[in-house]
Please model this.
Amino acid sequence: MKFQFLPFWLVLALSSFQSNAAPADAKQVVPDGSYVLASENPDIVPGRTMENTGVMTMEGGKFSMETPQGKIEGTVEMTTTTETRTKALTPEKVSVLTKKNETIRKMTMNDQVLPGAPEVKPLVDVPVVVTLSKGKWTAAREDGAEATTEEAADLKHIARNVSHVTDRAMYGTQPRKPGDQWKVDAKDSLFSGDDGIKDPAGTVELTFDKVGDYEGMKCAYLSGTVEISGKMAKEEKGSQGKVSMTGTVAIIRSLELGEDLLAEMKGKIEMKMEMPAGTMNMSGPMTMKYGTTIVK
Model:
């Protein structure tokens, strides 16, 4: 799982299509009642298809901006929705189709509503192929067309998620049992990277709460806290931004598939941007919800 949210937003998590018959190092109970939550070498099952959905919202956000002409204040509401379909073609090739990646904003400034059209990210309805070569996953447009600068950034993000490198950093590949607690350094967390927070500081603390059923599957239930700060990985030309985020997370992870079937975060985000026109501060409550459905 990976939360993609800056310059504000959201979750895009892709699967590695691990098999129901778990390899010896993952997703099976060991004699001491422990489980391995993330495999070092997950199986890729050709034909497995998954639907990924994500929603990120900010409601009741506020911003202020100090300019040479005076102070400007306003409010912001924002919703980002993503829908992605992934299918394993071979053990070394996965197809990805982003069916929706749209942000809708509503902003007021000095009590005036600012007009704004929905923002659609690149690669929507553009088939992408992710391939494994010499131990590295890379993503490219299926039609062979050269990617734009913005598309290239999203392709890098897609390849990173297919590799599951963030899952291994978050959950570890060693056995864990209910009641275990551990810390994840911010730089290894799901919020860092080219589409998240640059040079992050802080930690994500996780607890393995229990094992239970969800959607007919045996799952690990996890909870945790997030406290991270750093620089905005994506900035507008001529601007410099800092961001901090605090909150709680709840995760339901399939022990059979090694996939996060449901992940939710509730918290607060604060940003400060130095721009040519002045200094802008923004803060507000934020919620994220991500889900995975096994199609076949």
Summary: Confidence is low (pLDDT under 50) at residues 1-29.
